[in-house]
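Batch job 17 of 40 flagged for manual review because the log was empty.
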Amino acid sequence: MERDEITKSTDNEMSASSADDAKKSNTESGAFRSDENPSGNDSFEKRNFEDENLENKTFDSEDFEGNSDENLEENFDEGFEEQDTDEDSQKKFIKSKNDFFKGFLFGSLITIIIITLLFSTVVQGNITGANTDSKFNEIKDIIKQRYLYGDEVKRNNLNSGMYKGYVMGLGDPYSEYYSAEEYRALKEATSGHFYGIGAVFRLEDGKVKVMRTYENSPARQGGIEDGDELLEVNGKSVNGRKLHDISGEIKGDKDTKVTLKLYRSKTGKTFEKTLVRKDIVIESVSYKMLSNRIGYIKISEFTAETFNQYQKAVAELEKRGMKALIVDLRNNPGGVIKSTAQILDSILPGGKIVYTKDKYGHINTWNSDEAHKFTKPMAVLINGYSASASEIFAGAIQDYKKGPIIGEKSYGKGIVQQIIDLKDGSGIKLTVSEYYTPNGRRLHKVGVNPDIEVKAIGDGSNQLERAVTELKKRIR
């Protein structure tokens, strides 16, 4: 779900995540999510929460659901190394002086260079230095002299790759550097709308597959079906590429065309579709009335539009005489924490919704008020691809004993990514904190265990049937 839970930088209000790289990665056609979206921001919430500000706090992702892209996995709480103490700095300075004298024989010019590099290392506490710069220049010279296609190399691409590699060196699947173009796509994904074809893709066993298409979207009107495998976008193979890169190519300006090559397993045929991009509002909420006036709301991901869509769904079900409610979070990779917190505020009594803790022990808390709460019986469905913001939702409902959590253990992504703007329009998504349920339960790499475990059979309709059975017992 690179749709991971993400939080915004103090200067912005958006989130990302994802679960961008989880067991399954999902993304909107033409929209990026995770996270991780899942990320994620997954992206999206308040500033120091997965999305740092609850308005900027976390976000999971948008275009590719389910996995992240998620990646809904490892935690990297330490971040960069802290500044050295005065004593440590002094020791480093003494060592620098020794290095200086050893290098003196190479001449005053070399000495000045060494002093500069060592001084930079002491003051900044960096892991970079003379050896790193020397190795970088050596690699650069080798590429310049020997790389076969050197004339085609673009400096911007080399620089972007260098920045990506540096962040990748953290070993955290949720932390990532985004070029200016990628960063724009990331922020667009969290907004809840984009110009694209209205299809949601996921990464499954190395293949990019259509998870669903939106009603009245170019994708659905063009005959694209759930389960179709995406092979190429505008003649370029998707094999081995990241979901958000693929999503960026499917998206584009309004009324422009994009050509997809797909494979349909049930017919064994490969075919192409040329579609015109339209303004797509991400349909993250769908609903219907089941038997016994039990309302059913499916939340596919949490975007900036999800809360409003949820409110409309509840209002419509109430008009139809709803007596109980099922909230389905199966395959939901997460997303914007602000939306998640707003929905929970409309359900829970006054009290804590969720809180986060960073490497310094700083805590940010989201609270619900007593003014709004859902008083009818309810149940929540989850599975192994419910991640991040979905787990925040399920964990809070469980802690308040608002209704049974039914299905299978959730993914276990309980960390927050913050999205930080860089001066040139690019950005960094960085894991900055971990979140906890109202009762203080840690969910990262743990997940939410259902109150009633029901293994999915086929399409999982047996899990929904169990939820209906449980609510029938509670309806008065």
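Reviewer: the log was empty due to a logging misconfiguration, but the result itself is present. Residues 130 and 136 are 10 Å apart (CA to CA). Unflagging and moving on to job 18.
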